[in-house]
Description:
Chain A is mostly helical.
Amino acid sequence: MSARTRRRAExxxxxxxxxxxxxxxxxxxxxxxxxxxxxxxxxxxLIAYSFNDxxxxxIWQGFSLKWYxxxxxxxxxxxxxxxxxxxxxxxxxxxxxxxxxxALALARGGAFRGKTLSMGLIALPIVVPEIxxxxxTLMFFSAIGLSLGLGNLIIAHTVFCxxxxxxxxxxxxxxxxxxxxxxxxxxxxSRWEAFRLVTLPLLAPGIFAxxxxxxxxxxxxxxxxxxxxxxxxxxxxxxxxxxxxxGVTPEVNAVSTILFSVSLVLVSIYWLASRPKKDEA
Amino acid sequence: xxxxxAGTEAIGIRNAVKRYGDFTALKGVTLSIADNEFFTLLGPxxxxxxxxxxMIAGFEAVSEGEIVLYGERIAHLPPDKxxxxxxxxxxxxxxxxxxxxxxxxxxxxxxxxPGEVERTVREMLAxxxxxDFADRLPGQLSGGQQQRVAxxxxxxxxxxxxxxxxxxxxxDLKLRQAMRGELQRLQRDTGITxxxxxxxxxxxxxxxxxxxxxxxxxxxxxxxxxxxxxRPENRFVADFIGDTNxxxxxxxxxxxxxxxxxxxxxxxxxxxxxxxxxxxEAVTLSLRPENIVITAPGExxxxxxxxxxxxxxxxxxxxxxxxGGTRLHWRRSNQSGGxxxxxxxxxxxxxxxxxxxxxxxx
Lengths: 281, 362
């Protein structure tokens, strides 16, 4: 606990002195603004035109919510959204379970052969180009003849969700004082009791943060989903892509805006959950 | 090495060895801690004192040897099966549980009925003066209060032995001194054997019934605070606890339990013996600076010249030089009316207090 407080204080100190140093570079401010404008103005435009009364995406004719109504009435979009939610929920549940066990083994399991290798393997899906994973997964599934419908998507999503679920859980575990578990054992708790009563409640914010992150990553995934899904298992991002190919109407903007809002909310929850709390200091 | 102990043995450590790969942290430690004793493991960092404590608690396995708790071998048991509790250096309170739940934790794991849990927790919180803090979270308490919660939590299951791992080191000086008396009181009130680990010699001297001084994984001396301070057996113990003068000497004559020795090329002194020496042998003596008695010139055992004087508040440390060149530190009290200070170059006579010199083992 105290170690974490100290670390936080150091981080704050660094941030402070860092800000002081940055102030010396006057051009950095405008540059940062330009960067953010470049990054976010397309999204702002996309959202703005989702309220467009026109049939054409890029010609403004007045404010309207009619495209949102169209989205909500579109059965294909509903199916795709439902698919996305099912896949994301299942992939999150499985990947968080695996990530939690992996984090416990790596942070608390002592030294074992292949520990560094295990760490690398868990993080690998982050660095391997997604298209490579996608093609490999597709070929693998067809090679073994696996066709479980949404099940295929869930398996593929679970794989790349694991590292994202793993990171906040392990970070939380590393910040946790190992003597707490020893104190539990010292006070006659069995290993299971120590885990259930001490480790798990303290790990919960990390697990929650990992779950939200995995959920968002799964929800937004496109390349792998495009390769793995077929006619009946289209996910929302894949469906949006197919809509664009048929011509861009503000309906695309509206459904994208909805997806963006859901992600934004979830990422905000993640951020709030992974923030250190005052009462634990 | 250990002295005879009155009463039952609470903890017996029999030739305990701890190896980490090539490094040996404990090199065959044998200790016997008596029932209802306040026993301190004292030594510099890396001496193995914490390792030894963690071995008693069950957090470290013994590489060799045995640990006996009230006659029962426990070295093979996991921590949750040993009737001992620990007060950790940084308390290790469960941050998500209230003070009450922290203190109740051990009792609940022992499946005590809720009524008894409630009663014992209230009793323990009263014992450490935290009755009104039962519903707080540990993060809402000061360091000293957290320390007392840790004590209450470890005492609540009424362990056979309480292990304390430098529990005062995170507190500030005033609080640390207040907690010394508090710990002694708790030990007396509960009648539980305390095993206390510290690197602070003052803490050890102030609280302990007996002290074991450790160095590099080996027990150097076991004894009461008086034994350790007044009758150190070797150079390490004499040096680690308090200040001392080391004097090179030659054994002149061996008497019963004592010896006559020659120091500084001609001064004849008497010293207590805790081990065998032979006439003619070169040995090192330990003499505490407060055990030098200054007399008028010509009236003491020897003459000395004042070299320097350092004012330290309650006393001053005066450097004296004997005719043969041996330098001694003398602790001179600065009590009011003690006369004026000594100037450098001044000549004085000196003798040594009775029983003040210890012959150290080489």
